[in-house]
Amino acid sequence: NNIVEAVLDSVRFNVADCMDKLFITWGFYDNCADTFLLDSATQVIFIADLEAPIMTCQDTVKTEDLFGTACQEFLGFIATAVDSCSGIDTITNDYIPSFTQLGFSVAANFPVGETTVTFNAYDYCGNESTCETIVVVKDVSRPFHSLEGEIDIIIPPTSGMITININDYAGDIMAMDECSNPTVIILDESTLDFGITVNCSDFPGNNYDDMVHISAIDAAGNIKDIPAVLRYLCPAGLALAGDIETIQNEPIDDVMVKISTDSDSTMNYTNGFYLNDELTMGNNYTISPEKNINPLNGVTTYDLVLISKHILGTQLFDSPYKIIAADANRSGSVTALDLVALRSLILFSIDELPNNKSWRFVDAHYEFDNPMLPLSENFPESMECLNLTESELGMDFIGIKVGDVNGTASPNNFTTIDTRNEEGEVILQTNNVLLEKNKISQIPIYAKNLDEINGFQFTLNFNSDQIELLNIENNILEKENFGLKFQEEGAITCSWIKKNEDKISSQNPLFYLNFSAKSDLFLENNLWINSKYTSAEAYNIKNKIYAIDFLFEKNDVDLISHSDKVLLFQNQPNPFTTSTEIKFYLPQFTNIELQILDISGKTIHTYHTPYAKGIHRINIDEYIFPSPGVYLYRLITPSFSASKKMILIN
C-alpha cells in the first residue's frame, strides 16, 4: 500500500485517418523509502472516431393542395447534424426535384400523397447517420365533370323496363379528378321518380325527364355533386339511335339525320341524339348525318397557320380528324389549295367551301388503318344496318367542323370559343395625316412587333361617307390577303400568314391604302380596326392569340399647326347615348356658329361664340334632342361652312 503510480510521460501520435496512438509511461513511488523505484511501464491506447453524427429532422410535414389544380404544394424544411469528435463533413438528401442545391435543405413542389425524404449526414471520419421526413400533401380539390344535357337511357322495347346502373353512363358524365383518380360515381336513388327500375308504363308518352342527383367521389374522398337529368326513352318498336358529338364529346346541334330504305326520311334529333323507333324487321337502313350551315364557325387565320405548318411538315397534326378538317376543298389531300379556299371564306370572298359542306361525320367506331393518312382511306360517313332484326342503339358519329383544326367551333352554332390572350397585342399604325378634298392620299400601313407573329386577320373600316377607297397597293401583303365584298359600306377584310420570304420590318409597310377625301379631314377617327366581319386577332409562334390595335403615330395637334384652313371633325363618340364632343380647328381668331339640326334641316339648338386660333371642343348633351335619331351639326364662320352627321341612340 505504500507504492503509488504516477504518469511520468505521455505522447500522442496520428497513425491513420481518424486513428491515434497514445503512449503513457507510468512510474512507481515508494512512500516508505521516499524514492522512485527503478521499474516503469508503458501503456499504449488506440483512439478512433467510430461514432455517427447526431441528426435532427422533422418527422412529418402535412399540408393541403391549396390551389386545387396543380396537384402539388411548395414546401421547404431542413435537417441538422452535430458531431463532437471529427465534425460534420456534409449533409445530403435524396429529393432530386428540390430547387436548392444545399443538402441539408429541401425546397420543392411535392405531389399529392405521401413522399419520404431521406437525409444523410457524414462526419470527417466517414461515419454516417440518417433521418427521414415524411411529407403528406392532401388533395382537397373536388372532381369535375363534362356532363352537358341529358343522359339518355333507352328502355328496350322487348321488356319495356330497365334497371339503372349509373356506371353504364360514365362516358356521358365524364367525371374526372386531376390529382386523385379513379373517381367513383354514385346515384342518389332517393331522387329517382320511379326507383332504380323504370318501366315504360311508369309515364305517359315515349320519353320522360327525371331530375336526379349524382355524386362523383375521388380517391381522396372529395365529393362533387352533379345535378343531372335522366331521359328515359321508350322505343315503340325496332329502333336505330345514336349520339352525334365532336371529338371533345360535345353534342352537335342542328344535324339533319337521314334514314334511307325504300324511301328517304329524317329522324328525330335532339341535343346530339337521334332516334327512329318505328322500323320494320328485315329491312335495310342507311343512316347519314348532314349539317351545312355557318361555314365560318370556328374558322380563323390561325387555322391557316396550323394547316400551313402541317403542309410544310414543321408541325404535323396529331389526329386524323384534324387532317380531315384541313381538307377544305375535299380533294382527298391537304394542300395550298385548301389554304386558298379557307382564306376566301375568312375574307367573305366566298360564302361556302367548294365541293364540301360545313361538317363531315365519321362512324365513331371506325378505326383508321393509318391515323396520319386518313384521307387515303374510304372512311365511313354513313352507317348501314342490313336485315334489321333487333334495335341498334349505339350508332354514334363524330362530327368534324371543316376548316377548324384547333377545335374552336361551337357545336351549337352560337359563339366561337374565345382563346385570345390579352397579355400581348399587335399594333398596326400610320400617321394621322390630313386628307385634302378631292386629292389622292397614299396611306402606308406599318406594323410593330411582328417578329414573332405567324399570322393575323382583321376588319379594316373607313368612313365611307367622308372618304373613298380607290385601291390597295401590295407590299408584304398581296391582293389575295384582302376581301373587298364590303368595300362600299366602308369595310375590307384581311387575312395573312407569314411566308419564309416575307421581310418584316417596322419600317417596311405591310400595304398602302389610296384614299380620296370628300372634304378636308384628318385620317384619325375615319380609319379603324374591329371584328365586324373578320375577327381582329394575331397568332404568335407560341400559338398564343393576341389582340390587334390600330394607332396613329402623330396626333392632330402636330399636324394642324401647319394648316391654314378651318377644320371640322367627326363627333366622338358616334353613335352616343348621353353626350358627345364636337371638335374643330380655327387658323385664326374668329366668330363661329355651331348649329344642331334634325334630319329635315330644322335647327334645334345653336351655339354662338368667338374663339382664338387652335383646336376647340364643344360638349353636346342628349337633353337638347327631342328623341333618338340621326341629326346634323354645322359649323359656320365668315369664310367656312361644313356639316356632318351624328346619331343619338337609347
Describe the structure.
The chain has 650 residues and is mainly beta. The mean pLDDT is 88. Strands 26, 28, 29, 30, 31, 32, 33, 35, 36 and 37 form a 10-stranded mixed sheet that branches. The chain has 5 helices and 44 strands. The longest helix has 12 residues, at 301-312. Helix 2 packs antiparallel against helix 4 (336-346). It starts with a strand and ends with a strand.
The percentage of residues in β strands lies in over 45%
Tally of strands: 44
Show unreliable segments: none
Major β-sheet annotation = 10 strands, mixed
Mean pLDDT equals 88
Number of helices: 5
Structural class label: mainly beta
General form: extended
* Span of the ends, CA to CA: 124 Å
> What is the alpha-carbon Rg in Å?
41 Å
Considering DSSP H and I runs of 4 or more, what fraction of the residues is helical?
under 10%
Give short descriptive properties of this protein.
ten-stranded mixed sheet; 650 residues; five-stranded mixed sheet; 5 helices; 44 strands; 6% helix; mainly beta
Short overview:
By secondary structure, the protein is mainly β. The longest helix is centred in the middle third of the chain and has 12 residues, at 301-312.
Task: Break the fold down into its secondary structure elements and pairings.
Elements: E1 3-16, E2 19-30, E3 35-48, E4 54-57, E5 60-64, E6 72-82, E7 88-93, E8 105-111, E9 113-123, E10 128-138, E11 151-154, E12 161-163, H1 170-173, E13 184-187, E14 197-199, E15 207-217, E16 223-233, E17 238-245, E18 256-260, E19 264-266, E20 268-270, E21 273-279, E22 285-290, H2 301-312, H3 320-326, H4 336-346, E23 359-363, E24 383-385, E25 397-401, E26 420-430, E27 434-435, E28 440-448, E29 453-462, E30 467-474, E31 482-483, E32 491-497, E33 511-517, E34 521-522, E35 527-530, E36 537-540, E37 545-552, H5 556-560, E38 567-568, E39 579-586, E40 590-598, E41 603-611, E42 614-621, E43 629-637, E44 640-648
Parallel strand pairs: 5-10, 11-16, 17-25, 26-37
Antiparallel strand pairs: 1-2, 2-3, 4-6, 6-8, 7-9, 9-10, 12-14, 13-15, 15-16, 17-21, 18-19, 18-22, 20-21, 22-24, 23-25, 26-28, 27-34, 28-33, 29-32, 29-35, 29-36, 30-33, 31-32, 36-37, 38-39, 39-42, 40-41, 40-43, 43-44
